[in-house]
Structures are given as C-alpha cells and as structure tokens.
Specification:
Length: 336
C-alpha cells in the first residue's frame, strides 16, 4: 500500500472547511476571514432558513390558542345557558308533577265523597239517597282547612319564572277548580254533619208519647202549644247527639229539670229535657251518635221520657222532620 504524504492529508482536510472573506471598505482596515467546516455552514444556512418557518409556526400556534380560548369561553357560556334551561325544565317538571299529584289526591277525595270507585265514570253512585243521610266525613290529607293551608316549597313554584306556558296555566287552573269543588263539598258535608238527622233515642226501644204542636196539657187539661216531641222509654235509656255540635248548656233548667243544650251551627240548636243524668259538660264537642245523657223524669214530668226540641234560625220546628231513622213502623202514641 502506497503511503499518503503529509501535504495530501492537509489538502484533504482543507477541502472540508469553507472560508468567507469579508473585504473592508478601505485599505486601512483588515480583511475579515471566517472559516468553518462544511457541516457548520450547512447548519447555519439551515438555521437561517428555519427561522421564518419557526416564526410562522409560532404565530399560527399563538393564533390558534386565542381561537381555541375564545371557543372555550363561548362553550362555557352556552353550557351555562343549557344548565339554566335544564334547571328551568326540572322546575317545570317538578311543578307539573306536584300539580298532578294534588289533582290525583283531590280527585280521589271527591270520588270517595260521591261514593265512586276508582275508574267509575258512568256516574252511578252520584246523588244517592236512602236512610244514610250523611256519610262519614272524608278527612283531607292535611291538618289545616282549605282557607288556612300554607303553601309548601313545591306549591311555591306557582310563582316561579318560566312556568307561564299555557299548559302549566291550564293545569294550575284545573287544580284550583278541583280545590274549589272539594272546598264546596267539604262545606256541604260540614252542614250535613251539623244538621240533626237521627232520633236522640233508639226507635227500637222507645216510642213517641207527645207530638209537636197543639195538644192537651197533661197538667192543666187545656189546649196549648208543645214546642217539642216527647220520646218515652225506660229509665236510663241512652240519649244520643243527633248531629255534630258543641254543648252550650248542661244543668237544671226549671220545669225541664236536668237538661242539655247543643249548638250545632249558626242555624240549629237542640234541647234535651227531663234527663236522669247528663254525661257531657258545657263547651264539650260531640259527634253524631255520642251519648250525652240518660232518660229520666226530672223537672215537671209525668213519667220517664225525653223532651226533645229543635230550633232552626231561632224558631222552634218539628223534630219529627229531622228524625230520619224514625219510620211509620215505630210505635207512636202521641196525639197528631
């Protein structure tokens, strides 16, 4: 192998370098010479060429960042709007659900009141008559009367914004109509509950010994007005309240002896005289059928019997008209 001399090696090494001469503008200044390997010059050129690209890429990235930031901000705004709408829809659903629940409850109460079974739509059972003058009072699922009901948070949704569409208003109006109907039925039931409707003494154990109106007095033998009916029976026969009411008097009352008076409502007031014993006190509340005393002959009496009076709007009326469990088969010994 032929050896390579030193001069050839230097020549090859110099070929790998590139030199730039920078000539001065005047002869007094020195010539600037810059020598770098070929790789270095390629790197410098590549860097110079890459600067515009990198700058453009940076500007594009900065621009995209701002666009994406703006889009993110818009999405957040839209998301908040959707959330508000969803909350509004949830409130509306809650409101409608509450209204439907109230309507269902009220419809059930009205069905019970009218004697209808669930799903009965043919009208049978409405307006029924018979001996049962007043059914048991239907209790509403709340403690306060209609006029004093305090609205729950669910009911307060009625005044919430965004619930004024026609369907919600129609549903609310239907609920109010049912509330009005139910209130009317309750008022009617209250009137029925406080109106005398049964005999104060069992028709199977007693008999009518003296009627309402003109009669011959057993004490004077003269014709005079008798403002009550006399119901005769055995001593100690239970005396029943013919309707719901409040005891207005319980004690001795002249010729009536031991007596009880019950105020039922603004129209009706009943009196029970000649009792052997009273089992209620003044101010006590009673229900139809409660025992208020026992038959006796206290006061001015010719035997064991009950003196039974009814006042309607301050005037005495015939109690027989309000003894609906007393029919023609019961024993009547009174003068008509």
């Amino acid at each position: 192998m032929m050896p390579i001399n030193t001069s050839e090696r230097s020549s090859r090494r110099r070929k790998k370098w590139r030199t730039i001469l920078i000539l001065p503008s005047s002869a007094e200044k020195n010539i600037l010479k810059l020598s770098l390997p070929s790789v270095g010059w390629f790197a410098i050129c590549g860097l110079i060429l890459a600067i515009p690209f990198l700058a453009g890429a940076g500007l594009w990235t900065y621009s995209r960042y701002h666009v994406m930031a703006e889009q993110s901000r818009q999405l957040k705004i839209e998301n908040m709007g959707f959330r508000d709408k969803l909350d509004e829809q949830n409130k509306k659903v809650e409101y409608l659900s509450g209204e439907l629940l109230e309507i269902k409850e009220k419809a059930g109460l009205i069905q019970k009141f009218l004697g209808l079974k669930e799903g009965d739509t043919d009208g049978r059972g409405i307006g029924r008559g018979g001996v049962e003058f007043s059914p048991d009072r239907i209790q509403r699922p709340m403690k306060e009367p209609v006029s004093q009901v305090k609205f729950s948070p669910r009911r307060q949704l009625h005044a919430s914004p965004g619930l004024n569409d026609q369907r919600s208003m129609d549903l609310h109006r239907l609920n109010k109509d049912l509330e009005s109907i139910l209130g009317t039925l309750e008022e009617r039931q209250e009137r029925l509950d406080t109106m005398p409707s049964i005999s104060p003494a069992s028709p199977r154990e007693c008999w009518l010994s003296s009627s309402f109106g003109m009669r011959t007095s057993p004490f004077t033998g003269k014709r005079q007005f008798h403002p009550a009916v006399d119901i005769a029976g055995s001593k100690g026969t239970p005396i029943l309240a013919p309707a719901k009411g409040k005891v207005a008097f319980a004690g001795k009352n002249g010729s009536l002896g031991l007596s009880v008076e019950i105020e039922h409502n603004s129209s009706f007031r009943t009196t029970y005289g000649h009792l052997f014993q009273a089992s209620v006190k003044k101010g006590q509340l009673v229900q139809r059928g409660d025992v208020i005393g026992y038959m006796g002959d206290s006061g001015r009496s010719t035997g064991y019997h009950l003196h039974y009076e009814i006042e309607k709007d301050g005037k005495r009326v015939n109690p027989r008209d309000y003894m609906m469990d007393w029919d023609e088969n019961n024993l009547v010994l009174a003068e008509e």
